[in-house]
# Entry
Amino acid sequence: MKPNIFQLARNSSPFAHIILLALLAALLAACGSASAPAMESVARESADAVEQKAAMAPAATATFADGESVPVEDYLASAVSQSNDVRVIIYTGNISMVVKDTEESVQAISQLAAEQGGYVSGSNVYQSGEVLRGTVSLRVPAERYAAVMEQLRAMALRVERESSNTEDVTEEFTDLQARKKNLEVTENALQSLLNERQRVGSTSDILEVQRELTQVRGDIERIEGRMRYLANQAALSTINIELIPDVLYQPITVAGWQPSGVAKEALQSLIDTLQG
# Structure
C-alpha cells in the first residue's frame, strides 16, 4: 500500500514530520481562502442562464459568455459554485416503438439525432423469425431531451412502453470538486517542498516527497475522470429505443378466427418455428 500524509506522521524520520506540517499549513490556508470570488464572466450570468448552457454543452467543451471554451466539467464546477439553484442532472429515457419498417426507422432516428446536435452511440438490427427488429441508443443534448422523445413518439405507429429516469448527481459533483481543490493545495505544497529539497536535501528526502507527490497527482486525476464522466452524462442525455415491426401486431386469421393476447403470441411463435 502506498504511504499517505497521515502515515508519514508515524515515520521515525524528522523530515517526515516537516512534510506533514507543511501540508497541514497549506490545507489550513486553503480553508481560509475558500470564499474567494469566482470567475467574473460566470458571476455576470444568471443562475438560469448558466444551468441552460451547462445542459446544452457538448461532451467535450462548453463556452462562457465571453467566448472562452473550457472542458464541460470545469464549466459545471464554476456554475455550481455560483448558485445553489444549478443542478447536475442525468436524464435517461427508454422507449419501445411499433414501426412500419425497422431499417427505415433506424435511418430516420439517426437523422433526428444529428439534427438535434446528438449522435447514435449504438444500433443493432437483427432477424427475429421472418421480421427485422432493432435497437438504437442515442446521445442528445440534455436541453433537447424532451423534444427528441416527443419526435420519437410521433414516428411510432404505437408506443408500447416508455420510461424516463433522472439522477441528480449535484451532491457527488460538488464533493468531488471540494476534494480536488484540497488535493491541489496539497500538491502545490509538496511541489514547493520538493523544489527546496532538490537544492539542499538528501536523495532519500527527495524520493520521499516524490512518492507523496505521485500519489496525490493520481488521486487528482481519478477525481477529474469521475467529474468528466458525470459532466458528460449530464450534458448529453441517453435514449434507448426498441423498434418492433408492425407485422407482429397485425391480426392472424385462422379459418375465420382471429386470436388475440396470449393465444396470438403462441400461434405466432408456432408459425415462426415452422417457418424457421
Remarks:
- The first helix runs from residue 14 to 32.
